[in-house]
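Q: What residues go here?
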């Protein structure tokens, strides 16, 4: 899930709520694993392992609503959104009070492009828990996707009030202001987000965009360079590098591309960016190595032809 001005207009935040206790199934069936075992695996980052645990529980006890919810959560994280929707719906049929399942069902429908269905489901989630910041936030994203900017802004403001420690509603409000070219307002929200979450790379990146618009280039460069040291991924690092290159900071851009290919997770396309940048410097041997690496990683991607052309050009030099 990505956020902010130059990222996805709708950020999807899956609600896990590990450790929460929902109503138990009225009939207990024997199972080797427990819901708590699966929760522990989710918290450790082993989503595939957690999926296996919840599949085992559901196979033994198809009436375990919480296990069905968690199975949906795992499937969604593993890319099976349709499978996740089916499990969330099953969980809610068994236990209509399981609001985290309702929230994630709304987000899954939003991801599938069913904006009307997502709004309806997320409105139900807010009605059930009007003081839940995550419910207000995700309904606001759905309103934004539906083009209802007034209700989206209202939802983001409510979420920011309900959870002042969450940078995401502030980033969303900054994005809306940026879209309207209200740069001073966007700057205010992004600076607030940085105060709340100083290690958030997206907040730093978005603030840098405002500063570029405000012609405060030196500070923008400083923020872009800091992104590999913050909470960020390879895609964000590489994008920061692109903007550094546009600001004529070629050496700094190279550092960001290198960070992007070394990140966890890495961003494979950064090899093409790095190869092109090195070729412009005349370092054709290293450039060729990065084009080759990209082709090794993803030989059938739409970007592969660009990598092949870059590699061929470098070999001719």
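A:
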């Amino acid at each position: 899930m990505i956020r902010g001005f130059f990222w996805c207009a709708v950020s999807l935040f899956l609600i896990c709520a590990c450790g929460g206790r929902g109503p138990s199934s009225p009939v207990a069936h024997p199972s080797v694993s427990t819901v708590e075992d699966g929760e522990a695996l989710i918290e450790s980052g082993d989503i595939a392992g957690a999926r296996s645990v919840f599949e085992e529980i559901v196979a033994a006890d198809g009436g375990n609503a919480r296990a069905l919810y968690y199975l949906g959560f795992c499937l969604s994280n593993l890319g099976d959104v349709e499978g996740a929707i089916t499990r969330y719906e099953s969980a809610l049929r068994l236990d209509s009070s399981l609001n985290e399942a309702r929230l994630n069902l709304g987000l899954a429908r939003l991801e599938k492009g069913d904006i009307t269905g997502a709004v309806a489901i997320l409105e139900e989630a807010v009605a059930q828990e009007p003081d839940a910041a995550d419910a207000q936030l995700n309904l606001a994203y759905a309103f934004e996707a539906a083009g209802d900017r007034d209700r989206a802004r209202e939802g983001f403001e409510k979420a920011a009030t309900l959870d002042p420690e969450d940078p995401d509603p502030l980033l969303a409000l900054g994005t809306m202001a940026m879209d309207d070219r209200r740069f001073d307002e966007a700057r205010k929200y992004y600076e607030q987000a940085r105060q709340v979450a100083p290690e958030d790379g997206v907040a730093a990146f978005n603030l840098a965009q405002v500063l570029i618009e405000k012609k405060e280039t030196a500070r923008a460069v400083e923020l872009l360079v800091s992104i590999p040291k913050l909470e960020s991924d390879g895609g964000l690092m590489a994008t920061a590098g692109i903007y550094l290159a546009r600001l004529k900071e070629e050496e700094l851009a190279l550092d960001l591309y290198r960070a992007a290919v070394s990140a966890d997770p890495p961003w494979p396309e950064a090899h093409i960016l790095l190869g092109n940048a090195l070729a412009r410097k005349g370092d054709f041997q290293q450039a060729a190595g990065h084009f080759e690496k990209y082709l090794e990683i993803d030989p059938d991607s739409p970007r592969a032809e660009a990598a092949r052309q870059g590699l061929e050009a470098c070999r001719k030099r």
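A: Context that may help when evaluating the design: Residues 295 and 304 are 6 Å apart (CA to CA). The radius of gyration is 22 Å.
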